[in-house]
Amino acid sequence: MGLSVGDAVRTARTSGQKLIRLERKHNGPAYVFMTPWLLGMILLTAGSMLFTIYLAFTNYDLLSQPRWGGLQNFRQLISDPNFWTSIRVTLIYVLVSVPVRLVAALFVATLVNKHVRGMGIYRALIYLPSLVGGSVGASIGWRVLFDQNGPINAVLRIFGIQGPVWLGNPATALIVLVLLSAWQFGSEMVIFLAGLKQIPTYLYEAATIDGATLWQRYRRITLPMLSPIIFFNLLMGTISSFMVFTQVYVITDGGPMNSTLFYVLYLYQQGFQYFHMGYAAAMAVVLLIIVAICTGFLFLTSKFWVSYDV
Amino acid sequence: MRGKMKAFTLIASVSLVSTAALSGCGVASAAKSNHGSQDTYASSKTSPSAASVQQEDITFAWWTTPLRTQLTEQAIQLFEKKYPYIHVTLEYEPWSSYWTKLATQAASGTLPDVMQMDASYLNQYVSNGSLMNLTKAGIDTSQLSTETVNMGKVGGKLYAIPVGVNTFCEIVNPAILKKAGISFDPNKSYTWDQFANILIEVHKKLPNVYGSTDDIWQGAPLAYWARSHGQSMYSSNGKSIGMSEKTLAGWFAYWLNLQNKGGVEPAQANAAWDHTDPTANPFVKGQVAFTYASIGQDGNMEQLLGKPIERAIFPDWNQPSKPNILHPSMYWTIWSKTKYPAAAEKLVNFLENDPQVSKIFKNDRGVTANQKNRAADEKAFGGLVKTQDDFMDKVQKVSSVVPLDPPNASQLGNLLENIGQEVTFKKLTPDQAAQEFIQQANAILQQG
């Protein structure tokens, strides 16, 4: 390799700056091409967001006009035991499912990062579950799998284990949902795989010559080189875990005994089952703040473990 | 390196913003999706001569089951044949998404012209002015009993036409009882204790079977329990629970005792099945001898079980106060701002009174309110229709009509489910549960 990585970056940057200068001269067409996206962003996203924030301060039942209520919704939230239950359930889920999913994704990505005949097919097959994982169909299938007399317990019975009533037991219902999420690691896996391919092989070659073991190479080269990717997946996984809904709605609907009353499920119940749209909007605003705090916290910690040195 | 970091921060913050937008706007965007089960009867049916007449387009919405969708489509075909200048757009959804969609449509001022309505929502839709006053509309109610017509009145004005009458009852799998050697007379008024003993006896004789599903968190049997103890579910102004803490504690204790003795399924088994899905009910799998159902559902349960069932009024019904509750099964209502009130009225009149429609629907929408049609159907079909009609005839003599549920009552379902489950999982004693339920329920009802 005659060209160092640093050179490549520098070349890319100068050409990039030229491009930016060019673009500034001809901004008009760019905005025209961006119009559909901008319209969508303004009307569907930003507009609805602002409206949600407004609704959070009102009493709105969908059927009659919203009435201004000031901080009433937020005061009510603080004294609502179900709100705190939903926060607790969701935090447990985030804390357990995100690491489980990341470890699974990284492990499988490492496994399929090999040159074996038909590897593309394996990768596609492994990716498949995450395409269907969040869907209603997969959730219904999951429900059937973990039925008291379903296939999972039938397999356990072969080994002489009397499986629990998975979905009827407050202690195990959440586990079923975590398992469903762990199984959909496909998109993280693909991102990890791309990251693994980016790591220059000469680093490994040099380390091998110096006598580094497989584990040392993984620990000292792969993980640090991959840390920005791990950070990205951690961030996206955390955010999406806060918003899990479909699986919960289909599989447990919050039960038993509110043991799976996830935040967004409770928000849905308030908004669309009880028609407390103002209250639900307040919950959405609080969720926005919680997610912002968590991501901010992750960004702060990233200084200590994410390395951007190439 | 800096540049890369910057780019990365940009990506991360863009995705953060868009996710934040998602979390914030779940409310707004979900409101827009009305899961597309729409069907249109093409205008190709319009006959050439009708072209001169003004075409009237109305929308008809109802909550559905696969069978009901078929039956309703047949009825609408007949209607469009009779009134070729009226074109009906059909909108149907399962129960829970139906109400979500209707609320969204009400918010945007685009309700369907004719709506199937439920008693638990009628108050709400009348009070916000969404429904047309039908007192002077041209809808024929001459074949409905006065008592039935009154079910559709709010504040003395007729807003809703009752389609059928209904009640909740116990359904019984006689094969299990026969196998257990237990005699049960569905026409007898057992006391609550006698009924409990029968349930426990079933499990004693047949260890793999339980007496009944655990109905501890089912609102309909609880409302009956209150009345059979001389009280009511709601106070007369609808702002609080009407029964005493002692009565409610008695309810929780009744089912807990049954659970401890095998009269009903264990806590985990009961919490595991989806109570809104009849195919998941242990009754249709022959795992319990009793469960509760409404008349109309009973036929479906019988079909799923694949064996004949019997129907019995809830325990202790033979009292002078007539504790059993008579419900309107559903109503037809018309949107107050419909563009074509005449066409909407014609449709309601047709669905309510046409003898052919009644023969198509049979008792799918509850035991037919139109007495002439009810008698004709009974004669024409016999079988299940006759069984249901006979049962309702018997029940109506010993039942009362109770006031409509207060507006916030639909929220109490989840509360009762949670507190009931805390009793079954022994986290709360019946006394604690009663206290907690009444406290939280009253807070909810006061907001209504």
Task: Give a written overview of the molecule.
The complex is a heterodimer of chains A (310) and B (448). Chain A has 310 residues and is mostly helical. Chain A has a single domain, classed as MetI-like (MetI-like fold). Chain A has a two-stranded antiparallel ribbon. The longest helix of chain A has 32 residues. Chain A is globular. The N terminus of chain A is likely disordered. Chain B folds into two domains: 185 residues, Periplasmic binding protein-like II (D-Maltodextrin-Binding Protein, domain 2), CATH 3.40.190.10; 203 residues, Periplasmic binding protein-like II (D-Maltodextrin-Binding Protein, domain 2, 3-Layer(aba) Sandwich), CATH 3.40.190.10. In chain B, strands 1, 2, 3, 4, 7, 12, 13 and 14 form an eight-stranded mixed beta sheet that branches. Chain B has a four-stranded mixed beta sheet with strand order 9-10-8-11. In chain B, strands 5-6 form a two-stranded antiparallel sheet. At the A-B interface, helix 2, helix 11, helix 13 and helix 14 of A face helix 1, helix 3, helix 10 and helix 16 of B.
